[in-house]
Each structure stands twice: as structure tokens, then as C-alpha cells.
Amino acid sequence: MPIKSKLPHVGTTIFTVMSKLATECGAINLSQGFPDFPIDQTLSDLVHAAMRAGYNQYAPMPGLPALREAITAKVQRLYGYGYDPDAEVTVTAGGTQAIFTAIGATVHRGDEVIIVDPAYDCYAPTVELFGGSPVHVRLGADMSFDHDAVRAAITPRTRMLMINTPHNPAGTVLSDADMHRLADLLRGTDILLLSDEVYEHLVYDGRKHATVINHPELRDRAFVIFSFGKVFHATGWKMGYALAPKDLMTEFRKVHQFNVFSVNTPAQHALASYLREPAHYEELPAFYQAKRDRFAAGMEGGRFKLLPCAGSYFITADYSAISDEDDRTFAQRVTREHGVASIPLSPFYKDPPEHQHLLRFCFAKEEATLDAAIKKLCRI
Fold it and tell me: Which CATH code, of 3.40.50.720, 3.90.1150.10, 3.40.50.1370, 3.90.1010.10, is assigned to 14-32+283-377?
């Protein structure tokens, strides 16, 4: 029976492809973004305790009240702004579901959504599924945010701008100055903002996370997306949350209730308790910076040239001194022949730049894993 695809140009994601190849080849997997170390035993114990206490049925649609209140308290503590836990906070099945829901709630057929490449690969297909038109612009040559390119892309049909900080895959971060320029750019328009901030605590070298929450002109038009899975080493839990002004969140929940309705109840109870101790997230920058620095120092002995990484747990590497192969071919060859899997950057673009030779490595790994990968990569 013939089926007309809604995403005819979309295949299996590069993350699935490279992780599968890593498994087949027995390679060290620095491709897909997940840690290879356990979650905090305290958090694990809290989940088990919630299950044993009988918290195994549906949670309220927007999330457990105790968790929404804990999220609000955390945001107030970090950024000095108090969202209404009843009307402006929704617990989601990970950051990707939150992004999908925000787009589904607000993007109509014919609307344009500006996406800044390289971009997480769920952005454009989700816009297309809801009848919107992705409009792609690029980061600058140094992977910095190009405000002029975004300004040039705005038309009367622009409904939403999507930003990501800390950035996956580039490892760059936006500054407060960037946020001020964004406010200037969007002032006087009806353009919504979707700010993907799932790596909010993974910011290095003494920097502070610059969030749209601190900028009222942006906050008042924004969905802000976060991930518990990314920051607490539990990507398989698929736990996140969205923040937005009441009017936007009302529309968000209309879609959320018919998408997942509600998310993992025992995990919500556990996270509500876990967030009471700020050290659990305050210690993350130093924890991951040490891993970044270990990987960067080790790779100095090889021919890859690492680009600066100011945030996230990804670092990009230029391999142009090694090969002129396209990045997909080279990434697959390194996996098969040298035993280390990475992610080529071209799938993060609609139109990849010519002569760009970049791979993305995930350094959210045990020290022994990183050291073994470094040894193999430096032999190339």
C-alpha cells in the first residue's frame, strides 16, 4: 500500500548510524552524546524509593507539582526570575519532546522558522511536520552567532527563531551582549523565540550561562528548554522541562497532553528531591571542564586540530591535515580502521560549507575511555 511520506528526504539520524557502526566494529563511541559512567547513586536511590513508595501511576499532565516548584526555585536561585510553577512550567519527556511540542503549538502552515546551522537535527523536520518552512542561516566562520545573517533572514512570514546555547555541535556559547543584540533584532516583531538551553550547566573557564530568562524582552516571547538527562548523566530517562509565559504555555500544554500527556512519575519524585541540593548542578562545570581539558591535552599529540569549546560536552576537530575526504566517509573510516566513532558535522547543516572537514567528539566519558580514544586518534 503506497504511503506518501511527510518527511521524504529524512533517513535514519547520523547518531543512530554512527552508534550502530561503533557497536558493529567494537569501536570506542565518542559519537552519540551520552555518558559511559553511572548516575549519582543518590539519584538512583531516590528513584527506587519512589517506586517502592508506590509512585508508579500517571503524574499530573504538566508535571508533579513538587517538581515544578523545585524547578521554579532553581531558576529563581540561578537567574533571579520566578516563573509561575502552575502556569509557566511543564515537565517533558526530554528536551526533544519539548522542542517538538513548542513548535507544534505555535507554528502554522506557511510560517517560517529561522534555524541557525549547524543545528540539532530535530529542528527542521519538526518545523516541516507542522507545515512550516525552515529558513537556514549559518554560524560565522568561527562558529560565533551571526546576528546580521539572522536579521537578513527575517521576513513578514517569520514566526520563530531557534537558538541553542551552549551549542551542539559547535561548543560555543552566547553572551549577554548577544542576548541584548537579539532583543534589539526582535523588538517590534511578533517573532517567537525557542531557546534550547539543555547544556545550561556545562559552561567553562569561569563563564556564566547567558540565558534568555535574564532578558525580559526575550523571555516574554520565549520557550526555554532544559534537560535533566543531559546534566545529570541520565539521557535514557528522557526527562526535561519547558518554561514559557502563561499564554505560550497554555498552547504548549494543549499539544503536550495529546503527545505524551505526562512523563515518568518516579523520576519526577526523585528529581524534585534531588534539586533541593544545589551542589548537584553547581559542581557540573568543573566536572566536565576537567574532561574537556584531558581530551584537549591528549589530542595535542596528534594531527587533529581542536576548535575552542566553551560549553556542552562536545568538541569539534578539524581533520584537514589528515585527509581531504568528506566528513561522513572519514568518520566511518576512522570508526572501522582506527576504532573510534565520532559524528561528522555535515548532517547538522542544510547546505554544508564547502571544504569544511570537521568531526564532533563527545567527551562525557570515563577517563579510561577518553585516554584509550586519544591513543587511537593520535596514531592517525
Answer: 3.90.1150.10
pLDDT tops 90 at residue 126: yes
| Three-state SS at 218 | helix
Architecture of the domain whose range is 58-277:
3-Layer(aba) Sandwich (3.40)
Mean pLDDT score across all residues of the chain: 96
Residues 92-119 have pLDDT tens digits of: 999 999 999 999 999 999 999 999 999 9
Instruction: Give the integer Cα–Cα distance in Å for 342 and 329.
Output: 11
Q: Which residues contact 165 (CB under 8 A, 6 or more apart)?
A: 172, 173, 174, 195, 196, 197, 209, 210, 211, 311
**Grid coordinates given for 225:** 528548554
Q: What secondary structure does DSSP assign to 346-357, as a single string?
A: GGG-SSPPTT--
Q: How far is CA 197 from the centre of its chain?
A: 7
- Measured distance CA(70)–CA(67) in Å, rounded: 5
Which residue from 149, 215, 153 is spatially nearest to 180, judged by alpha carbons? 215
Instruction: Break the chain into its structural domains and give their ranges.
Output: 14-32+283-377, 58-277
Q: CA 31 → CA 10, 89, 115, 122, distances in Å?
A: 20, 32, 23, 17
